[in-house]
TrEMBL record:
Designated name of the protein: HAD family hydrolase
Residues that span the membrane, as ranges: none
CDD domains xref list: HAD_BPGM-like
Top-level taxonomy: Bacteria, Pseudomonadati, Bacteroidota, Bacteroidia, Bacteroidales
Matching InterPro entries: HAD-like_sf, HAD-like_SPP, HAD-SF_hydro_IA, HAD_2, HAD_sf, PGP-like_dom2
Pfam families with a match to the protein in the record: HAD_2 (PF13419)
SUPFAM superfamilies in the cross-refs: HAD-like (SSF56784)
Keywords, sorted A to Z: Hydrolase
Superkingdom as given in the UniProt entry: Bacteria
Record NCBIfam families: HAD-SF-IA-v3
Protein's UniProt keywords contain rRNA-binding: no
GO molecular function term, any single one: sugar-phosphatase activity
């Protein structure tokens, strides 16, 4: 666990960091949601890491469109059965054994998390604190969610390490004043490198 010596808490995003969901989400967006939007070549970097509420407010403001998108997302997420990002499960277990405080900080809803917990018994118990979309007053890239997790852990932001893959999430971690490890699971290394203190492809690499 070769992180800076001052780090005492590890804050993990979930999608694209611990669980390999981003490929499926990208295909879902392309197939189901992109046809509902004006053409935008940069849409994925704008929405990945954001809460569904933020996405709806920005891109699907009408009540009818919101209802349609929520229905599509709920149906898609009900069928999800993602695998762990390589090495993620072992790394998380080692972190807990090493005495780090841990937090899950995800833009996923409580409803989705119930599905994840049913798929992975014991997953929830590996975190001292969980922050979901339902707890977020402001969505990433605002640092609110990471600062809230640090507060709940009673750890100063400067002693926290964030693990993120999305542009919005990386910006949130940096804005929170935390050490940031970027995972090149969703975006290429050259895109996330300016926003991270360290970049890895997955958790099989030595940090």
């Amino acid at each position: 666990m070769s992180l800076p010596e001052n780090i005492t808490a590890l804050l993990f995003d979930m999608d694209g960091v611990l669980l390999d969901t981003e490929t499926a989400y990208t295909e879902f967006w392309k197939d189901k949601l992109l046809p509902l939007l004006p053409e935008d070549d940069d849409i994925f970097s704008k929405v990945k890491g954001a809460t569904l509420k933020d996405i709806l407010d920005r891109y699907f403001p009408s009540p009818e469109m919101k209802e349609k998108v929520i229905s599509l997302v709920d149906e898609f997420e009900s069928r999800m059965a993602p695998e762990y990002i390589p090495g993620a499960s072992d790394y998380l277990s080692k972190a807990v054994r090493a005495g780090y405080k841990t937090a899950l900080v995800t833009s996923s809803s409580n409803k989705k998390m119930k599905k994840i917990y049913s798929l992975y018994p014991g997953f929830k118990e590996q975190f001292d604190v969980t922050v979901t979309a339902d707890d977020m007053i402001r969505s990433k890239p605002d640092p609110y969610c990471y600062l809230l997790a640090a507060e709940k852990l009673n750890v100063p932001p400067a002693r926290c390490c964030v693990f993120e893959d999305s542009i919005l999430g990386l910006k949130a971690g940096k804005s929170a004043g935390m050490y940031v490890v970027g995972l090149a699971t969703t975006n290429p290394e050259e895109m996330i490198k300016p926003l991270a203190d360290k970049v890895i492809n997955d958790f099989t690499e030595e940090l």
